[in-house]
Write a structure and sequence with these properties.
alpha+beta, two-stranded antiparallel sheet, 5 strands
Length: 185
């Protein structure tokens, strides 16, 4: 029995094949690990950023015109509301005055606010749909949309942040929408 084991250990036929298949398995496991790590970071970043943008949108929704409110109308004060949105947006995401991430921010690139606006309708509830084309006329052209039911006048924000992708030279854009009602149900 020992002679047979010794002869099997000395016989190296097929050893190179096992070594190559082992390296291929390690490569495949590494690719799967990096991909799953990127997906986990993307979901974490999106969930965290969504909450921070919701806070900024809510702050913007609190700025109504007091004269119109005294008359029973809900009218958004565009200047104050936009200033409140960007104030909270910059503080929450640790951005400077030009929306560039400061040291300590988890963002790696400047976030882009594609839309910030007041949405109203004569009848509620109603389905609001907004479609935005990102990077038109380029190879990165993408269409993003928001479909939501509004129960009153609302502030809508559509923001793009970029997530660093490990193992790739480019960042992955994450599109986040936020809606905040000005009239609480």
């Amino acid at each position: 029995m020992n002679k047979r084991i010794t002869s099997l250990l000395r016989d190296a036929s097929g050893g190179v094949h096992i070594y190559i298949f082992g390296l291929m398995a390690i490569g495949a496991i590494t690719i799967i690990f990096i991909t799953s790590l990127n997906i986990a970071f993307q979901y974490t970043n999106k969930d965290h950023t969504k909450q921070l943008i919701d806070i900024a949108t809510h702050a913007a929704a609190l700025d109504i015109d007091p004269v119109q409110a005294a008359l029973g109308r809900i009218v958004w004060d565009t200047n104050k509301g936009t200033a409140s949105f960007y104030n909270y947006f910059r503080k929450n995401l640790h951005l400077d005055g030009n929306n560039i991430p400061l040291q300590g921010s988890y963002l790696t690139a400047t976030p882009i606010v594609h839309y910030l606006g007041f949405v109203t309708n004569s009848n509620y509830p109603f389905t609001y749909t907004k479609i935005i084309t990102l990077y038109p006329s380029t190879a990165q052209q993408t269409t993003r949309s928001i479909h939501t039911i509004l129960y009153g006048p609302s502030i809508v924000a559509m923001v793009e942040v970029n997530q660093k992708m490990y193992g790739q030279g480019t960042n992955e854009p994450i599109f986040i929408s936020s809606v905040s009602s000005m009239r609480k149900r």
